[in-house]
Amino acid sequence: MVVGVLALQGSFNEHIAVLKRLGVKGVEVRKPEQLLNVSSLIIPGGESTTMAKLAELHNLFPALREFVQMGKPVWGTCAGLIFLANRATGQKTGGQKLIGGLDCTVHRNFFGSQIQSFETELPIPQVVAEEGGPPSFRAVFIRAPAILDVGPDVEVLADIPLSAIETINSNPAIPKEEVYFVLLSI
């Protein structure tokens, strides 16, 4: 098994290092033809607008979309989540290209600026019921996107009510009674 890591910008080195520690071969992906040699793909965190511009420059979007449509495993963290969403809000004027494949709407930088970052214990009852382990995990929200809604085939593994997050309360544009999802499985 060879795991590709999209290496345009962001935390691709960290993902390659973790894969190596796990005994899994990880390779950097920067060109469409490199996707032919990997069985799965990680799209790391970073700056999604910059990543989209670089993906466009290297003509990666058609190959990335085909990779996802073939049903190969793809995991996106932060900017990678934004790339994988079918729909995005909170984008800069004109938006950015998305790969799609994850039936959700994501809001970029939903949790505010860098100084509004926070950590919280996130209950994961469904994961515990199916896999065992501790009842929660420490979730870190750093300029994080939020998933606003999901399609019928997306299974929500954990969510966090906005009322539980004091740092969000300063944004009047966000309805406080909504729940936004942070961990998904399809």
Write a structural description:
This protein has 186 residues and is α/β, with parallel strands linked by helices. It folds into 2 domains: 2-100, 3-Layer(aba) Sandwich (Rossmann fold); 114-185, no CATH class. 23% of the residues lie in helices and 32% in strands. The chain contains 5 helices and 11 strands, in the order βαββααβαβββαββββ. The protein has helices at residues 12-21, 48-57, 61-69, 79-84, 125-131; strands at 2-6, 25-29, 40-43, 74-76, 85-89, 102-107, 118-123, 136-141, 146-150, 155-161, 179-185. A 4-stranded parallel β-sheet has the order 2-1-3-4. It is globular, with a radius of gyration of 17 Å. The relative contact order is 0.13. Residues 173-186 have low confidence and may be disordered.
Q: What's the SSE blueprint?
A:
Layout lengths: L1 E5 L5 H10 L3 E5 L10 E4 L4 H10 L3 H9 L4 E3 L2 H6 E5 L12 E6 L10 E6 L1 H7 L4 E6 L4 E5 L4 E7 L17 E7 L1
Parallel strand pairs: 1-2, 1-3, 3-4, 5-6
Antiparallel strand pairs: 6-9, 7-8, 10-11
Give the gist of this structure.
The chain contains 5 helices and 11 strands; from the N terminus they run βαββααβαβββαββββ.
Query: How is the biggest beta sheet arranged?
Result: 4 strands, parallel
Query: Unreliable runs, pLDDT <50, ≥5 residues?
Result: 173-186
The radius of gyration over CA amounts to: 17 Å
The CATH topology of the largest domain = Rossmann fold
**Strand residue content:** 25-35%
CATH homologous superfamily (4th level) name of the largest domain: Class I glutamine amidotransferase (GATase) domain
Placed side by side, the strands forming the largest sheet appear as: 2-1-3-4
